[in-house]
Structure formats: structure tokens, C-alpha cells
Amino acid sequence: MEPENNLSPNALLEIENRQYNETNLLYHTTAALFGLSDTMFWVLYSLYGSNAPQTQAQMSAGWCLPKQTLNSAVRGMVEQGLVMPAPGCRRGKNLSLTEAGRALAEKTVAQVIRAEKCAMQRMGLERARQNLALGAEYLHFLQEEFTQLKESQNKTENV
């Protein structure tokens, strides 16, 4: 469903933000369907999708997950035998899925990835690429604007 061409900037922003929140709710609801917290879901997704160990710092930065929340989820997943730290590492340790973690990811994350790929193919790969490029461009501009907002706010507070 495409928005009308004559929508105001405010209307476009509202639609953009509602779609963003609807997407987040969709992933939250799907994680809950599988009995997973959002953070557990994204840890499984990250490790399953990469097929390579990752540090918590990499996951936190790459998936915009709060470090403390991620640490709690990983600790629980280690206790459940789903994730294991690489032997001999201390802080910044590489994490990977155990056999049980990989089996859980196959029953959960793999289904989500299949659904995502089907949705993308239904959209058309070229349109999906364009959508990603436009989203990245919008995010870049938004980051610049928010940086200016933060700098302006800091100047106001220091006066």
C-alpha cells in the first residue's frame, strides 16, 4: 500500500513512524509466539544469521540492543545451554550457538527469515533494494538532524 502523493510532511512522518512501530510490534509478537523475549530473539537471529561467533559489543552495536539488556539475555541463554562463550576469552568474548541454540534457531529464527525472504520476493528484489537504499538515506539525514538538535540543546543548557 503506497501513500498518496499529496500527503503533507506531517502526514508522511506519522505514516513512517506508525509503520516503524508496527514492524517492531510484528517482531515482538513473533518472538513472543515462540516464547522468546525480544532480546533473546535478536541474539538468536544475529548468531544464526552470521554463522560466526560474535561479541556482545558487536551485537549491541549492530542490532541497537542496550548493553545491560543484552548481557542479561546472554547470561540467561548461557544458563539454558543455548549460547556458549568461546573458551579462554574474558571480556569481549565471542559467543556462538550451542547445538540446542541452533536447534531453537531452526524452529524460530529460520522460519522468520523464510517469511522475510518471501515478503521481499513478493515485493520484488529491485523494489526491496530501493526501499533499503531510501531507508538508509532517510536514516542518515535523520541522524544528522538529530545531531544538530543535540548540539543545539547542549548549547542552550550551557547558557
Descriptive overview:
There is one protein chain. This protein has a 3-stranded antiparallel β-sheet with strand order 1-3-2. The chain has 159 residues and is mainly α. Helices cover 73% and strands 6% of the residues.
The average pLDDT score comes to 92
Helix content class:
over 70%
Unreliable stretches (pLDDT < 50, length at least 5) are none
Report the count of strand segments. 3
Largest sheet: 3 strands, antiparallel
Form type: globular
Secondary structure class reads: mainly alpha
Query: Distance between the terminal alpha carbons, to the nearest Å?
Result: 47 Å
Elements, N to C (H/E): HHEHHEEHHH
Please give the radius of gyration in angstroms.
19 Å
- Approximately what portion of the residues adopt beta-strand conformation? 5-15%
Strand order of the largest sheet: 1-3-2
Helical region count? 7
Write the layout of secondary structure elements.
Blueprint (H helix, E strand, L loop, with lengths): L8 H25 L4 H13 L3 E2 H8 L3 H13 L3 E3 L8 E4 L1 H9 L1 H15 L1 H33 L2
Antiparallel strand pairs: 1-3, 2-3
Provide a short characterization of the protein structure.
This protein has 159 residues and is mostly helical. It is built from seven helices and three strands; from the N terminus they run H-H-E-H-H-E-E-H-H-H.
What distinguishing features does this structure have?
3-stranded antiparallel sheet, globular, mainly alpha
